[in-house]
Amino acid sequence: MGIAVENISKSFGSTKVLKNLSFTINEGEFLAINGKSGSGKTTLLYILSTLDKPTEGRILIDHRDPHEMTVEELHSFRNENLGFIFQFHYLLPELTALENITLPARKTRRQEEFIQRGKELLKQFDLVGKESRLASELSGGEQQRVAIARALLLKPKYIFADEPTGSLDTANSEKVIDSLIEINKELGTTIILVTHDPDYAALAKRKLHLVDGSL
Fold first, then answer.
1. Contact 135/93 with Cβ under 8 angstroms?
2. Coil, helix or strand for 146?
């Protein structure tokens, strides 16, 4: 099980952003994808996480091709197996921290069932006492930790993190990276981290370095 990348390329018009990439990501691995701005890191992550399609080639997640699924099957597959953390937290400002964390459960009308897990995640990410605060009232570091907790609510097998420290200061960045390392170590969650920071990339168990769309 894991993710298999088979000869994928991605073009936007006449520009080829990714060039014939093939590799595997093992279940439980912590993988960093790094490279300079414009190297194709985020494009690759979006394809790995099913948010975009390759122009050529295919990916398999747990031996399944997500792009052969129906729209309903793909939504269900994402909800059950994939968690996303982006550079910007994308919290709903009118909801509380706890409501934002339990948001993924709303899609399956299971929010009440996950209230207790949401509270446990608040504790895990040092957010006790913040559960009733609106997202707009939280600091940048707190907002990003809420976003990570939200990604973990349904216990996904895979977490895709796109420059999750990009908008944070050094202290909060280190907290976020430490959280990802702990999630990988304690829960066995597969982490795919895109970062331009070589120091954070070095903390992963394996690193893929992209240069102009090639490994």
1. yes
2. helix
Please give the Cα distance from 2 to 58 (Å, whole number).
14
End-to-end distance of the chain based on CA atoms, in angstroms? 22
Residue with tokens 């414009």: 38
3-state SS, one letter per residue, for 26-89: ECCCEEEEECCCCCCHHHHHHHHCCCCCCCEEEEEECCECHHHCCHHHHHHHHHHHEEEECCCC
Q: What's the full length of the chain, in residues?
A: 215
Summarize pLDDT for 27-85 with one digit per residue, the tens.
999 999 999 888 999 999 999 999 999 999 999 999 999 999 999 999 889 988 999 98
Q: What is the pTM of this model?
A: 0.87
Name the strand (E) or helix (H) holding 12: strand 2-12
How do residues 100-114 score in pLDDT, each as one tens digit?
999 888 776 777 778
- DSSP H/E element including 198: helix 198-201
